[in-house]
Amino acid sequence: MNMQTLALAFLAATAIGGLAWVFLYPVLSGEKKAENRRASVAKSEPAARQVDKTQRSRREQVEGSLKELEARRQKEKRLPLSSRLTQAGLDWTPRKFMVASAILGAVCFVIAVLAGGGLLAGVGLAFAGGFGLPRWVLSFLKKRREKNFLKALPDAVDVIVRGIKAGLPLFESIKVVAADSPEPLRSEFLAIIETQAIGMPLGEACARLYERMPVPEANFFGIVVAIQQKSGGNLSEALGNLSKVLRDRKKMAEKIQAMSMEAKASAGIIGSLPPIVMLLVYLSTPQYISLLWTHPTGQLMLVGCVIWMSIGIFVMRRMINFDF
Question: Counting CB atoms within 10 angstroms of each CB, which of 138, 150, 229, 257 has the fewest?
Answer without folding.
Answer: 257
